[in-house]
Amino acid sequence: MANYHRNNVESLVLGHRPKSGGDGGHFRLWNSLSAASFRRLIFDAVSCGASSRYAERSTVDEEEQQRKTKASVRSEKLSDLLNIAEVEADAETKKKEERLEELKQLVKELQREGEEEEEEEEEEEEREGLVKVKRREGAAARVRLLAKEDLEVRGTLAMLGAIPPLVAMLDSRHDVAALVASLYALLNLGIGNDANKAAIVKVGSVEKMLKLIESPDGLDSSVSEAIVANFLGLSALDANKPIIGSSVAISFLVRTLKDLDNNTSPQAKQDAMRALYNLSIFPANVAFILETDLVVFLVNSIGDMEVTERTLAILSNVVSTREGRKAISAVPDSIPILVDVLNWTDSPECQEKASYILMVMAHKSYGDKQAMVEAGIGSSLLELSLLGTTLAQKRASRILEILRVDKGKQVSGNYGLGAAVSAPICGSSSACQKPDGGGKECYEEEEDMMSEEKKAVKQLVQQSLQNNMRKIVKRANLPQDIVPSDHFKTLTSSSTSKSLPF
Questions:
Q1: What pLDDT, on the 0 to 100 scale, is given for residue 58?
Q2: H-state helical runs in 116-191
Q3: What is d(CA 296, CA 409) in angstroms, rounded to the nearest whole number?
Q4: What are the residues facing 405 on neighbouring strands?
């Protein structure tokens, strides 16, 4: 529009003739224009272009202003966030400083009470029969609470020196509350902190706890359970295992586990068993374990599903030594009990541990091999090698191999399957080398054995199922007519079984 007016004005001013229309009409328009009309045309043309440029500048200015406004808003938000973060950091720093100051004051109370301990003991007789709330008991209880769930606090308290005064409190034999408070405070300080575990043992806590155990006045049940819990926590560190194991701690834990007087809580029994497992990991401690009757107790405990898995775990450590294997073998019916565990299809962990124990015993002792064969281990191993976990399958296969081969000779005998599973030994045996061609027949029998492998596997599986059904019926006390019929027995024993090339 502006260009249109501008062109018309230029034409009028310069006297150009318009391109369209007749000449006369345009000259009449030129002549009829007055000065006022001419000025108006010029004003309109100039005003139109100016307003367009003004509108463009206004739009640019508005966008620039909006950008500046947004930038200002963002800057203010960032500043607010930085201020908030700074305030929170200051609050957190102040909170940490207050917590550190609280911990320092707590440790001072423990240390001050430790220094005043001798004076308090001299005045013990004068205060007899009176109840006095001691600050050190409160401080120890506070340490126990703060260290219960905060790993950082445990390290801070140890660095501030809280462990030595807490261990010194173990000398207060007649103050049960102080003993319990200090023992559980030490227990919580050692949770998840190996440095604290080592420091607790280094300052003599084990010796003091053993003195409490051997006290002629007896030991309160709450103190006894706290000591068991501490042995559990401290024995988790490898460096502490020989220190605790070489003391009378093992016999104390065994007494707690057996609990002949029924004064121990179930939790304390579990802690004692777990502590014994930790200690049995160190081979030298097995000798101290064998000085007690723990092995007999553990073997006879197999079958109690609450403790069987951990019982087998301890026996897995005990069987690593020669004396440990002898001790297990000496327990009446130990081999049949372990073989029976191989059939616990609902407890694969127990199957794995029992198979490990039997594997080690079979590898090291010929007498144990014979006992396993007599206990009918063959069917259990076959089923386990087919249906067990990967680890159990490997161990079962290894036991089968050990039982089948002994120094280059195959162990003959009945594997508890109702039929002989051993094949004639061929090769260098003099029995197979006969001048009338007996050796050739022996090799032919060996080939027949390989050709009948599938048949033997099927037979063994059927016999294994039959034996397992008998055991299930016996355990459930069901009528005997549920047992497979004679016809089924005839089918399962119709063919001659042979050794399997595991």
A1: 63
A2: 117-122, 135-146, 151-160, 163-168, 176-190
A3: 34
A4: 410
φ, ψ at 343 (rounded to 5°): -90, 5
Is residue 353 within 8 Å of 277, Cβ to Cβ?
no
Could you report the per-residue pLDDT of 312-328, keeping only the tens digit for each? 999 999 999 999 999 99
Residue 342, Cβ density class (10 Å: 0-12 exposed, 13-18 middle, ≥19 buried): buried
Cα angle 83, 85, 88 (rounded to 5 degrees) comes to: 110
Q: What is the 3-state secondary structure (H, E, C) of 263-306?
A: CCCHHHHHHHHHHHHHHHCCCCHHHHHHCCCHHHHHHHHCCCCC
DSSP annotation string for 87-129:
HHHHHHHHHHHHHHHHHHHHHHHHHHHHHTHHHHHHTTTTTTT
Question: b or e along 293-309 (b: 16 or more beta carbons within 10 Å of the residue's beta carbon)?
Answer: ebbeebbbbbeeeebbe
Burial track 162-171 (b if 16+ CB lie within 10 A, e otherwise): bbbbbbbbbb
Rounded Cα distance between 439 and 445, Å, is 10
Q: What is the DSSP letter of 406?
A: E
CA distance 242 to 240: 6
Q: pTM surpassing 0.90?
A: no
For the residues 364-377, what does the mean pLDDT come to? 87
For the chain, counts of helices (H) and of strands (E): 26, 2
Say how far apart CA 153 and CA 281 lie, in whole Å: 30
- Identify which of 56-60, 229-233, 420-424 has the greatest average pLDDT: 229-233
